[in-house]
Design goal:
Blueprint (H helix, E strand, L loop, with lengths): L2 H7 L9 H29 L5 E7 L10 E7 L5 E9 L2 E9 L10 H11 L7
Antiparallel strand pairs: 1-2, 2-3, 3-4
Length: 129
């Protein structure tokens, strides 16, 4: 918290003596309110770019071997843009792939599990396996 914000919340010990002083304090509060409102608007704009949505799908890439140790996770912002990360577990190791997502779609071909993870991130009600 900045010093000016700390002063904003501290109570003045001296009470205003006349209407002119009250109006002066009101104008100072109005300026501070405008500054805080501007900062809030900036936060709203930048917050849209933060990860807000997540969808995860666990799956088995091989029908007859192992369990659901592979997974896909989609991490998206308010515009449904971000990344989808796929981890494929195989006997001799693990492979990890990342693909960019713009507006819920990718320039790269997506597997059905990747599409499902994106759909779950966009609409959390899409939780069918």
């Amino acid at each position: 918290m900045t010093i000016s914000m700390m002063n904003f919340f501290q109570k003045n010990k001296k009470e205003p003596q006349d209407l002119k002083e009250i109006l002066s304090r009101f104008k100072a509060l109005e300026k501070k309110f405008e500054a805080v409102s501007g900062e809030l608007e900036n936060l709203k704009k930048t917050q849209k770019l933060a990860i807000q949505k997540m969808g995860i799908v666990r799956f088995n890439p091989f029908d007859n071997i192992g369990g659901d140790q592979s997974f896909v996770v989609a991490l998206l912002d308010a515009n449904n843009s971000g990344v989808v990360i796929t981890s494929l577990y195989v006997r001799d190791g693990n492979r990890v792939y990342g693909k960019s997502v713009q507006n819920g779609n990718s320039d790269h071909s997506l597997s059905s599990e990747e599409k499902q993870a994106i759909a779950r991130a966009i609409s959390p009600a899409n939780t069918k396996s």
